[in-house]
Structure formats: C-alpha cells, structure tokens
Amino acid sequence: MSINRILIIIGGGIAAYKAPELVRAFKKQGINARCVLTAAAAQFVSPLSIASVSGDKVYENLFDLKDEAEMGHIQLSREADAILVAPATADLIGKMAMGVANDLASTTLLATDKPVFIAPAMNVRMWHHPATQRNLEQLKVDGIRIIGPDEGDMACGEFGLGRMSEVDDIVSQVMHGLNQHETEHAPPALAKNDGVLSGKHVLVTAGPTHEPIDPVRYIANRSSGKQGYAIAAAFAASGASVTLISGPTDLPCPTGVQITRVETACEMLAHVQAALPADIAVMTAAVADWRVETQASQKVKKNADSKAPTLTLVENPDILAWVSQQSGAQRPGLVIGFAAETENVSEYAQAKRIRKGCDWIVANNVSPENGIMGGDHNTVDIFTNDDQDKWPAMSKTEVAQKLVVKVSDYMLKQPQ
C-alpha cells in the first residue's frame, strides 16, 4: 500500500522517549510523520523535540481556536493514511474501547476512517488486568491492529509483558498491516475476478527454512515471507480456500487463510504432501538447499586449537520439483515457482522453470541494493511456457493482487 503520511499519537508513558526515533524510522521509509502529543506525553518528551525531528507542527490542544475553526481533529484524522498510537497507555486504550472523546487524541481517533495501529506500553500488572484485556478484545473487534507489547525489564523495576515493541518492529508491522489492509479491501473486480477462484484450493508456501546445526545455531536465508503472505491473502480475498505452509516468520496469519508453521525443509515437504490435492500451488518459500547431515544434540563448542568444526551437508528435498512432477489428481493444475536471483535473472529463471517442471516461474533480482528481501516492494518477471510478462516496481501486495488476476484469467481459459 502506498503511504505518504502517518499520524502518530504519543501517549503519556515512559516509552514516549522513543517517539523521535519512531518519527525518524518512518521518514527513512519515505513517510512523513505528523504527531499529536497528549498532555501526559508532554511530561516525557517536549513538543519542540518532536517538531524538530518531524519537520511539522505538533498538535496538543483540542481547543486551539485556529485549528478547531478548521475542524482540526477531523482534518488530522483524514489527512493521514494511517494512525499509530505509540505508546498506547492503558488510559488511551480504555478511551478507544469506550468511544470516549474528551481530548485531541481521543477525538481524532473517534473521527478517523483510516487504519489504526496501537503499540501498548504499561506495567505488567496493568497489562494483565481484566479491564485492560477486555478493552483490547473490544479494539480487536473494532479492527484495531495491536503491535506487541514485548517482554522485558520495565522502568518500574518489574519484569514481564508491557514494554513497547522496538521501533523497527513497529514500523515493519505497520507496513505489513497496511499491505494486508489493502488486500482485504481490494476493489471487487480485482479481488473476486468474477468468482473464478471461488472454492478453489490454493496451496502457498512462504518464508525461509531454518536447518539446525545444533540446538542454538541454524542455516537460514534472508527471506521475510512478506510476498508469500501477501499472495495467500490475495487468493483468500478472491474467494479461494487457501492453505499456507510457512517457514519461520514474525508475520501474522492473513485473514481467511489456514496456516501451518514449520521450521525445516523436510517439515515443509511433509506438510505440502499432506495438503495435496490442490488446484493451484504457489511456491514462494525460500527453502534452504542444504542441511547438516547430523544435527548436534548439544551446542557445538570451540576446539582448544580454535579450528572451525567440519559440517557435512546433504541436499534438502526439492519441494517445487516434487510438486511439479506429481501426476493425476495429485498434480495441481497450475504450479508457480519463484526464482530469487542476484545475476542473469532471466536466464537462470527460465532454466529453473524447465528443470523443475513448473508451469510458471516468478523471477526477481534480490541483490542487496534492491532492498527486496525483507522490504515491502518487489519487481518481478513472470515466465510461462511461451511468454514473458515484465512488471514494474510495485508493493508486494500489488504484486500479489496482480498475480491473482493473471491466475484467474488463466483459469477462465481452461476447459471445465
């Protein structure tokens, strides 16, 4: 989802000191941050410091005559693409759950029609209090997305859940949540495409695999799973029955998707086999090519001579090839593979499609300078048996939606 401005409502907790860092993190993503500071928050961070970082006015008072002559609280809520409450105190959470509107922050939240995220921060006992949990359940029903909190030491000296999530995690989850929101609210023509996918079983794999070396270490890659999760969400929005087999990620399960979380390539293969038959398979997972032949039962220690241990690697099962080579009802009618390359992208992708036996392959250049792995945007080429479709750079959500349309068009042409 394209986002230009986010409104950050800063609550009155010790975690408010992270607000300037949060503003900077969004600006690094090219997103302007406008801030509302509650009276309590102003005790922890000054309006001047926030204004200096954001480059914009900081809003504090509902009864500022100039702003309210222009219906300032409504403008604030509508001009932003999304609202983030961070830190979200127990007081703010309670106001949101009850629909209270007695200051600028709560009035703005009640007037918005945009996606709202909260990053709670409070004492561990306040977090676990039945009133807080009851309020959080109401916010979930209202469609508010909750980020965190984390577990750890607190300013009050206690330990447990209640620490506001780290800034990078908050930004990442806001971006992912907005992409998911865009998919769930896709225009009917894009999301449904005449219902051709309604009731179809779509199998999607996503994320990396972790291949253990010992109980502490593992072999992995930089896949975030974002593209695969976006594809699963887009197919679900189209009316398909979606099974998502996911390697280790921190991403929430997309709405309407049946998810199974695995760790290793062998586990992923077993669950893929169990999920068949399927009408369509989209294999986005970045499966590790190799695993350690024998996992150590205890942590591998340094030798006295400091020589590195020798690891004997064996090849992992080729899940895409296995699915592509099935026959009869076990072979999905359309198998789509993914090729993440750093050079000779077209050449390697087309060779991979032929070698694996899949019908289509989606290729992208994941060189570090492109920021695709772990990022929210992608640039792909799709190779079929007799065609190449080159797409411009777009969000991973948009890639997913466009892929669903392409698949729908293909399915419409197949004999029933």
What do you see in this structure?
- By secondary structure, the chain is an alpha/beta fold.
- 35% of the residues lie in helices and 22% in strands.
- It contains 15 helices and 22 strands.
- The chain is globular.
- The chain starts with a strand and ends with a helix.
- The relative contact order is 0.09.
- Annotation, overall tally of beta strands: 22
**General shape:** globular
Largest sheet: 8 strands, mixed
For the biggest β-sheet, the strand order reads 13-12-9-14-17-18-20-21
State which percent range the strand residues make up: 15-25%
Structural class: alpha/beta
Average pLDDT rating? 88
Cα(first) to Cα(last) distance is 35 Å
**Helical fraction:** 25-40%
Radius of gyration: 24 Å
Q: What is the overall number of helices?
A: 15
Sequence stretches where pLDDT stays below 50 over 5 or more residues: 67-71, 188-192
Short note summarizing the structure:
This protein is of the alpha/beta class and 416 residues long. The chain has helices at residues 19-28, 47-54, 65-69, 72-79, 90-98, 104-111, 124-128, 130-141, 167-184, 188-191, 226-237, 265-275, 319-324, 345-356, 396-412; strands at 5-10, 32-37, 58-59, 82-88, 116-120, 145-146, 150-153, 159-163, 201-206, 211-212, 218-219, 241-246, 257-261, 280-283, 290-292, 313-315, 334-341, 360-365, 377-378, 380-383, 388-390, 394-395. α1 (19-28) links the parallel β1 and β2.
SSE diagram, text form:
Layout: E1 5-10, H1 19-28, E2 32-37, H2 47-54, E3 58-59, H3 65-69, H4 72-79, E4 82-88, H5 90-98, H6 104-111, E5 116-120, H7 124-128, H8 130-141, E6 145-146, E7 150-153, E8 159-163, H9 167-184, H10 188-191, E9 201-206, E10 211-212, E11 218-219, H11 226-237, E12 241-246, E13 257-261, H12 265-275, E14 280-283, E15 290-292, E16 313-315, H13 319-324, E17 334-341, H14 345-356, E18 360-365, E19 377-378, E20 380-383, E21 388-390, E22 394-395, H15 396-412
Parallel strand pairs: 1-2, 1-4, 2-3, 4-5, 5-6, 9-12, 9-14, 12-13, 14-17, 17-18
Antiparallel strand pairs: 7-8, 10-11, 15-16, 18-20, 19-22, 20-21
Helix pairs in contact: 1-2, 1-9, 4-6, 5-8, 9-11, 9-15, 11-15
